[in-house]
Structures are given as C-alpha cells and as structure tokens.
Amino acid sequence: MSTIPSSEAIVAALSALVGPQACLSSDAELKPFVTDYRGLYVGQAAAVVLPGSTEQVSQVMAWCYEHGVAVVPQGGNTSLMGGAVPEPNGQAVVINLRRMNRVLDVDTVNDTLTLQAGVTLNAARTAAEEAERLFPLRIGSEGTCQIGGNISTNAGGTAVLRYGNMRDLVLGVEAVLPDGRIYSGLRGLRKDNTGYDLKQLFVGSEGTLGIVTAAVLKLMPLPRASSVALAAVPDPAAAVGLLGEAKKAAGQTVTAFELISGPALELVLEYLGNVKSPLEGGHAWMVLIELTSGGSSESLDQSMMQILEAGLESGLVLDAALAQSVADAQAFWRIREEISDAQTRTGGSIKCDVSVPLSRIAGFIEEASDAVRALEPQARMIVYGHMGDGNVHFNPLRPKDRAAKEFLAANYEQVSHAVDSLAHAAGGSISAEHGIGVAKRDDLTRFKSEVELELMWQVKKALDPKNLLNPCKVLPFSKG
Ligand SMILES: Cc1cc2nc3c(=O)[nH]c(=O)nc-3n(C[C@H](O)[C@H](O)[C@H](O)COP(=O)(O)OP(=O)(O)OC[C@H]3O[C@@H](n4cnc5c(N)ncnc54)[C@H](O)[C@@H]3O)c2cc1C
After folding, report:
1. CB 3.0-4.6 Å disulfide test: which of 209, 252, 297, 332 passes with 205?
2. Which pLDDT does position 363 carry in this prediction?
3. How far apart are CA 106 and CA 115, in angstroms?
4. Phi, psi (deg, nearest 5) at residue 471
C-alpha cells in the first residue's frame, strides 16, 4: 500500500499546479477554512487550495486521487452541519472555490444565468436583477454562500413555496469528479430526456460525489410589486389554516409564509437591541406573509388585506400589521432573518431542521414541544421557519441561566432524537434543507432504510471508489 505524502510534499505539489499564492498552508491562513461557521467543528488540513479555473480543480483532484489525499470542497463555509470543513485529524486538502467567481453569461431570451461555482448567491441575484430578471433563491447567508455550495446542499430558504429549492432552479452543472475527470453538463435546457439526469447527482450530495465548478440557473420574471405583513395567530394550526386561505385568495402570488414562535421573537428582538415588534403585546405565534407579482402593489395590498381581514373574522388571526413601505417590509424581514444569528450568538441551541407534510405540521410542533418540555421544562422553544414548505427549524434553546455547554451536554442527544423521531413518525425528514454533513450523519442509520443506505453507498463507490472526496460526511460509516 502506498503511503500518503507528507504535508510538505502535498503543499509543494499543489503549489506547482495552482501557484504558491493560491496554496495556503500556515496555521493562521488555514484557520478560517478549517473552522465551521458556528465554531463547533475545527478540522485539520495540509493545505487550502484556491483554484482559478476548472482545469486547475481537475489537476488538483487528479493529483490528490493518485496520491490518496482526501479533498474537502468548500464554498462560503456557511454550512450549519459541519459539512465544509475537514476531519480533526488528518491532512486533507480543502478546495475553496472563492476565486472562481465570474458570471459567464446572462441569456435573457433563454432566461438563464451561467456562472462559475464561486459566485456568491448575492452576486448571482444582482447579476439577474441587472438584466431585469429574478434568481429566486433567498437565504440568510446570501452575502457569503456560493452557488456551488447552494447546489451541493440543495439550499432552500424563504421563497421555496413559490419557486422551489435549488434543485428546481438548476438546469446544468459542470463538475470535477474525484479522479479529476470533468463532467460537462453545462446545458440550459428545460427539456432533456436523454437517459439518467446526471447533474442531479451533484445537487444535494454535499460535495461527496464531485466538485461543482459551474452551473446554468433558471431566471424568472422580476416581480414589480410586493406586499408584506406580520400576523399574530393563536397556534400553528391556525397558521396552516391561514396559509390555505392565502393560497385561495392570492394563488401563485403567495411567495413566502414564515412561522415565528413567541420565544423566537423575544430572542431576536433582544439580539437586535433597538427594534420593536410591529405587533403590540406578547403573542405565542406569528407568521410573516409575502405576496409578490408583476402587477401593482395596491392590488397586492388589497389581496393581503382581504386575507388578514377574513382571518381576523374567522379567528385565525389575532392581530396584524401590513408593511406600509419598502423600509417597513425590510424591517419585518430583518426580524425573521436574524433569528438564526441571534441563536448562534446566544449559544446552546439544539438545531433540528425538520420537514413534515403540511397537513401534519401543527400536530408535530405540539408533540415535539411536549417531548422537549418533558426533558427540559425551561428550554426556550425557538421554533420558526418556512412553514409554507412544511419546514420548521425546531431549535430548543438553553434557559437564560444555564451555560450552553452544560445544557447541550445534558440534552443534545435526547432532544434531537425525540424531535427527529417525531418528524420521522409524521412522515417527515430529519433534514429539510441544511443537509447532513457530520452533524446528522450517524442519525441516518436510524431514519433511512437498508435499501436507501445501500444505494447511497453504491453511488458513492461508483464515483469515488477510494472514498477521498469529503470523506466521513453524509454517509454513516456502518454501511461502508
Ligand atoms: C445565517 C444563515 C442562514 C441560513 N439560512 C439557510 C436557509 O434559509 N436555507 C438553507 O438551505 N440553508 C441556509 N443556511 C445554510 C447554508 O448557508 C447553506 O447550506 C448554503 O447553501 C451553503 O453554501 P456555502 O457556499 O456556504 O457552502 P459550504 O458551507 O462551504 O459547503 C456546504 C457543503 O457543500 C459542499 N460544497 C461547497 N461548495 C461546493 C462545490 N463547489 N462543489 C461541491 N461541493 C461543495 C461542502 O463540501 C459542504 O458539504 C444558512 C446559514 C446561515 C449561516
């Protein structure tokens, strides 16, 4: 068996391929690339490579494959699952795509955007807007996360209800395979039934099957108008009822429907400091509703008012505030979008990103809340997220007077197991949009069937027989 080269040999070989400036190796340079967004996972690497082209990615991958060196693909490193950093012991090579950040083509006839994988989501949205089009993926990390990362995690976010998740928005992919070969599927076709849809292998596989280097994305008409409201609702069942009414009244224009629990609101307002809730008094549950269209804001506001007034009459809504300006709408959205960072700053939250069919979501939230309270009566129930997609971030948080470390040590396993089991029992998923990474890897054996795990390993082995690309992520060891 050949031995793996030393870190020095790895750095020398890769520097020769990409240039010394693009091959980082000092501890200080490596630190931000081997530490995950939340600072929970810190890995070790021989080098971080910043390739400037698909050919360079291919050459680096081919060298690593030949020499048995593990490779970890990385985009903006905003993964919440520890998926983008290497294992704690070892000498993997991190390939970060940040230098491959060019928009290659905006085709306003075909309504497609072709770009390199290192373009940030924000830059992709801006490129679309400059061409009077919409690229509809919208997530809290959009200034940092990259299109390659969005594809590899099949990112979701706040507009999935209307436009679908990343999988629905990708038409073509170019990817470098573990052995360095290039898969060129950079086609902008909405119809292509020529056998297996290979690009889908790279969507949602979290960098375990190939490194995405470029993509063709779908563009949509740019909405001209929007209407945003916050509504207090008595409980999640009322929120589901209100969503049904909104769809009936406003159809396709319903773009976002987000749930926010009272404790989540309290936490984010505390974190933001000088921001007040647009609704007076304390409420156990709120929803943020957004309608968008190519028509007029007046007509959208009218639809929104109809939805809210009918809700007030039927008891589905307790109180509501309609954004009167763009600034109001941004302020409403800020409350929703900062919940994630408010938790990260507070520390000590048990993150469960689950989805269940909408018809069972209210029951799930009630059962999961009861289960958590039975284990930890004082836990703050930070429950929020993309209710329109049946997706809630169910994240019990430490009581104010408990240290994060102690709370997590005492509760992490039991709480996440209880919540995941209830989601699974309700026909749901233990990871709606954040992926598996390392954080949920070992839980898969409990929630995926033998056949599913077997097939996942077979696909992995077909593309990466040496198990060198993002090893120890997604797939539980026991099925290796
Ligand atoms: C504040 C905040 C809010 C968030 N909100 C949402 C949300 O609403 N919805 C949602 O879905 N996610 C959300 N996320 C999670 C995260 O931003 C997404 O998963 C995002 O898609 C990751 O992109 P990235 O470029 O940062 O990827 P990274 O974190 O760098 O990597 C994620 C995974 O993809 C792999 N990968 C990255 N780039 C490539 C590539 N070019 N080729 C192959 N594999 C690659 C990595 O190996 C890793 O497994 C949020 C995160 C934060 C911090």
Report:
1. 209
2. 97
3. 9
4. -65, 155
Single-letter amino acid code for the residue at 118: G
Q: Are 384 and 258 in contact (CB under 8 A)?
A: yes
Phi and psi at residue 133, to the nearest 5° = -130, 165
Residue that has been written with the tokens 């810190």 in this structure: 42
- Range 285-295 burial, b when 16+ CB lie within 10 A, else e: bbbbbbbbbee
Q: What are the beta bridge partners of residue 45?
A: 92
- Alpha-carbon 163 to chain mean position: 15
Helix (H, G, I), strand (E, B) or coil at 109: coil
The residue whose CB lies within 8 Å of the most ligand 1 atoms, and thus the one to mutate among 87, 141, 343, is 141
Specify the pLDDT at position 477: 74
Q: Which atom of ligand 1 is nearest to the CA of 210?
A: 43
Q: Quote the CA–CA distance of 1 and 429 in Å, as a whole number.
A: 41
Pocket, ligand 1, Cβ cutoff 6 A? 37, 72-80, 83-84, 97, 117, 139-141, 145-146, 148-150, 152-153, 155-157, 206-207, 211-212, 340-341, 433-434, 437, 470, 473
Low-confidence ranges of the chain (pLDDT < 70): 1-2, 478-480
| DSSP type of residue 102 | -
